[in-house]
Specification:
The protein has six helices and five strands. Helix 1 packs parallel to helix 4. The N and C termini lie far apart (68 Å). By secondary structure, the chain is of the alpha/beta class. Strand 3, helix 5 and strand 4 form a beta-alpha-beta unit. The longest helix has 16 residues.
Amino acid sequence: MQEVLERPVTTVAEAPVDKNKGKVKKVLVICSKGKLEDVYAALVMANGALMEGIQAKMFFTFFGLEAITKKGADHLHTATVGNPAFMPGMPTVLAGLPGFEAFASYMMKKEMDKLDMPHVTEFFQMIDAGGGEIYACKLAADMFHLKKEDFVPEVKDIITVGDMYALAEGEGTQIIFI
């Protein structure tokens, strides 16, 4: 008969638990597209983070730069062609008809107004007032021949990709790419 050995019982001192460990402390929202639905997604994410007490920084690059230009900010359009979620079942050829994108954008903005959603420039003001930061990509700005004065006043600076990654430094940072 084999004897079964029991494991000795030991007590472990409870280590203090860091309740903030693993929580999101900062978000960096990268917006690379200039269509209405993409820009609003980025703005809602950044503003929502600020409302939850999370630091928010935004980096606009390539076609996303259109959203932060004085000329384009409040004149964005929704994507109708190649967007399977836009009016499901509608043939793509209809979405490409002249004037359809303008009509779809008008309807989308009308629905957002019903929900009392801020316009793009108002969102920038809210994010800035809430302590958020908005940046433009240097490479894309150079490529499209844009200068600081072309952007809405809430754009803090035109920075490199390396500078953008420096904004993300620190524990608890999440990068959201739109």
